[in-house]
Input
Amino acid sequence: MPLDKKVQEALAKKLRQEMKLMDVEEVKKDLVEWLEQIPFPNYPGAASWADCIKTFPAKPEEQQMESGMRLRVNFRLYTDDNEYLVSFLESLNPNSRGKYILTVHVNWQKQEKQIQEQLETIYFGKFDDGLKAKHTIWAQTIEKEQIRAALDSCAIAILGNELQGEPSYETAGIPIKIPQVAAKFPSSDD
Output
């Protein structure tokens, strides 16, 4: 006897809603294992990569929510010129359980401040849309099993953002010449 379509949909919805939200500590563990491939650069106030990761565990009431996004895990990486914010987000929609969004932003706060100043200036003149996703360099929807591969993609995106075609300075120097020494081979007379 086939189930009524409405009963099937209600059962599927209930099962999806009962799926747990992100296991933040497990994601943090995977993230730390991935980061440990890179020597820790001694960030101020941190003794290891684990100290640099911020977590935002699920609250019981979020399990029942039908929509919305929630930041779960983030950390920052710094280079000489840029600051990168890597974030794991989760949709609270029951149909999206078990799927997450991994994003990488460059100079998030700096550009946000610039955008805000630009909006204030534009607001008093002709209004153009000043908000653009210029600071997002990577975004990907992933499942739990794809975290390491997605983090590799993030690293490639960061490297791509850092690389330049040619250095802005001219290299000075002359290649070192190897002195030519006449080799003396033993002869049969010796």
Q: What stands out?
A: Residues 100 and 146 are 10 Å apart (CA to CA). The beta strands are 54-55, 69-78, 83-91, 99-106, 136-143. Helices lie at 5-18, 24-35, 108-123, 147-162. The longest strand covers residues 69-78.
